[in-house]
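Students often ask what a holo structure prediction actually looks like on paper. The answer is less mysterious than it sounds. You provide the chain, you provide the ligand, and the output is a string of discrete structure tokens encoding the 3D arrangement of the protein together with adenosine-5'-diphosphate.
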Amino acid sequence: MNILVLNCGSSSIKYQFFDMKKELALAKGMVSRIGMSGALLAHKPFDRPEVKISDEILDHIAATAKVIAILLSPEHGVIKNKSEIHAVGHRVVHGGERFARSVLLTEEVITEVRNLIELAPLHNPHNLRGIQACQKTLPGIPQVGIFDTAFHQKMPPMAYVYGLPYMMYKEYGIRRYGFHGTSHFYVAHRAAAMMGKPIEQLKIITCHLGNGASITAVNNGLSVDTSMGFTPLEGLLMGTRSGDLDPAVILYIMGREELTLNEANTLLNKHSGLIGISGVSSDMREIIEASNSGHANAKLALDIYCYRLKKYIGAYAAGMGGLDAIVFTAGVGENSPYVRELTCRGLEFFGVELNSQNNAVAIGKEMEISTDRSRVKVLAIPTNEELVIARDTRDIVEKINQK
Ligand code: ADP
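The corresponding structure tokens follow.
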């Protein structure tokens, strides 16, 4: 079975096309600047070099059509006929309380995803656009939704209910949902495999450190707590997001600077975090470089980033009553020995001992980076959300085909 995996953002579509017999990504790529000048399709077949094609791409329907066209192209493609696309798996950011697992995107489900726009106004509309684009360009092909929130849906209420009047949860659905679930799920399972133990017997903390960042406590294979909350703003310090904050600060700033709701939202989501503190960049590579060359606020941003991570690791180990492994993943987690080192430094007291040689060379690859005698294993694991989406899509479509 061949599966197209789509991750649709406001002006971009990332895609991978899988041959599921071999679990091989035959092609991957991205359409960027959809609806803007300078729209670009970057496409990489697994066995040939990447090509970049600039074109006018007005909307997600046109972008999806371009993706399908290049998959079929004699020169850059990997299939000959549209019928070789057997199913589409979509990353959907918010599944609310309704979706604790991946589902076939029927009209009824699509309506429910649309109803969740209120909870995820920045993400779900684009995911829906991608779904509609596929309904038009690939009519009759089954589509499956894989939700970022699903893995966290089994958290206990003590982890997801906020200290607000309870009616806020009941009436408005205000609670911790958590995000990056597909990534936390994938790396937690890889960690168990690397350790040669059933995940049901392990206490694992997974740190997904990309532009957005979140950390999850995975106890016996279940997400029992996670740092992102009602929206992806809560928790760790991120590239442009503040993470944890005294909520009164927001009220104070809004009053002081006479900010509208939109302006406050932009301040917290786009101008805070690494870029806000350092004034240098939201990119961790540039923060590390500036910090090393003596930029005081870049160093401060880096220190806050790693200190907050460390605090969460301590909190989640306490919450789970123990810890067997810490996993680092996504752009920063997979590629930055320095961030991993700073985060783990001082955690020796509860059994974390980094192997600095292994840590230094674990860049973009799966590797154990703790010493042999470290009681808590530390692992660097590249995430693969697309593969989880493709697997779920395959399983759901196979079940339907059996009926
Ligand atoms: P996204 O959340 O957009 O998917 P990624 O997972 O690709 O993002 O992570 C992007 C982040 O990874 C950026 O902040 C980038 O600086 C960081 N990153 C990538 N390579 C390195 C590296 N070698 N050292 C430190 N940070 C890195």
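Residues 296-320 form the longest helix (25 residues).
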